Structures are given as C-alpha cells and as structure tokens.
Amino acid sequence: MRELALNILDIVMNSVEAGASRIIVAIDERASANRLCVRIRDNGRGMNEEMVQRVLDPFVTTRTTRSVGMGLSMLRQIARQCGGDLTIRSQPGRGTLVTTMFQLDSLNRPPIGDMAESIVNLILGSLDVHFFYAHKTDAGSFTFDSFWLFGRMAERNCQIVEMTSPAKKYIKEKLKSIASKAIGSA
Ligand SMILES: Nc1ncnc2c1ncn2[C@@H]1O[C@H](COP(=O)(O)OP(=O)(O)OP(=O)(O)O)[C@@H](O)[C@H]1O
Ligand SMILES: [Mg+2]
After folding, report:
1. What is the pLDDT of residue 186?
2. Residue whose CA is closest, atom 17 of ligand 1?
3. How is the chain split into domains, by residue range?
4. Is the C-beta atom of 152 inside 6 A of ligand 1?
5. What is the pLDDT of residue 112?
6. Which residues, 6 or more positions from 22, have their beta carbon under 8 angstroms from its beta carbon?
7. How much is the pTM?
8. Fewer CB near the terminus (10 Å): N or C of the chain?
9. Ligand found nearest the CA of 18
10. In the chain, which residues have pLDDT < 50?
C-alpha cells in the first residue's frame, strides 16, 4: 500500500507549483475520534470554484506534460475508501486549503509512512518556500519550521547536504515520541 507521506508530497508539490511562499502541513491523528486529518494550506495562486470542481475530476489537469492530473482526485478516492473525504477551499490570488480526512481504523487506510523523508525533501527542494509542519496525536504534538532549520545551519556554518540526514533523524525521533500505538506511523 502506498504511504500517505507520498500523497502528501504530491499535494504539497501542487502548492509549490502554484507559486506559494508559505506552506503549512498539519496532521492531526485523533484516536479518541477515530480520525486522521491532513491539512495542506498555501498562499499560492489559488483556484476559482469552477477549477476546484474540475481538479477533483480524474480526467482534468492543467499540466501540459500529461493529460491526466492524478494527485488530488486519487487522494480523494483513497480518503473515500477509508470512510473520509477530501475537500478543497481556494481563493484566486490568496491560496488554497486541501483537507483530507480518514477513518483512523479503516482497513483500507494506508500507513502515514515516512513524513520525515517527505518534509525534509520538500524543504530542501524549495529553499525559498517557508514550510511549517505540525503533527498532533493524542500523545502530544510536534512542529517544525524550515526557517528554524536554516537558522541552525547558519549558526553551524554548514551546508544543506550536511543537514539532510540529521534533520530527518530529528523529525523521526520527535514523531516517534508522540506516536499513538494503534496507528501505522513510521
Ligand atoms: N494548491 C494549489 N494551488 C493552485 N492550483 C492547484 C493547487 N493544487 C492543485 N492545483 C491545480 O489543480 C490541478 C490538478 O492537481 P493534481 O495534483 O490533481 O494534478 P496535477 O498536479 O496536474 O498532476 P499530477 O499531480 O498527477 O502530477 C493542478 O494542475 C493545478 O492546476
Ligand atoms: Mg499534482
């Protein structure tokens, strides 16, 4: 089963491609409510209502390299198979919020997977974008700010390549410390 971390990577790439300078990825795992919620908010170019309807149609995309856009409609399909749904709120010129909900205990729900890998790759792949990552579980919460990482790099006078694996390790450890036992987190 494909990891949700890869779907999240796809959705965040849309935000990057939409020219966002600020992207927030917020994951909320609430065992008490049997819900997993993933929100991706950006300040990119946004979409009008008609476009929002069209992008959820699996046969529509604005990409010229391929005729079929899959990211959003595919994730919506997965969410619906897990007793949840995907919704988009967007305003042209202001930004977009993609909210995806899953029933936590659905047998069809893919594991969250390696969020540390996805987040660090996103940050290092788009250095001019300010990324925030917030992850909440019933056991606690963790936030990560890409500008904080750049500050640490500047302090230590080190290069991006030197920070890649320590940053992934740091996020992994933090996520482990708040992992709910019942959930397929990495
Ligand atoms: N955050 C966003 N801001 C503005 N436009 C967006 C955003 N997300 C998606 N879109 C628009 O919706 C279209 C569909 O997105 P989707 O991820 O489903 O497919 P794609 O990016 O076109 O192709 P794929 O993800 O399969 O490579 C995008 O091409 C883009 O025009
Ligand atoms: Mg896409």
Report:
1. 44
2. 71
3. 4-178
4. no
5. 95
6. 42, 43, 129, 130, 132
7. 0.91
8. N
9. 1
10. 66-68, 182-186
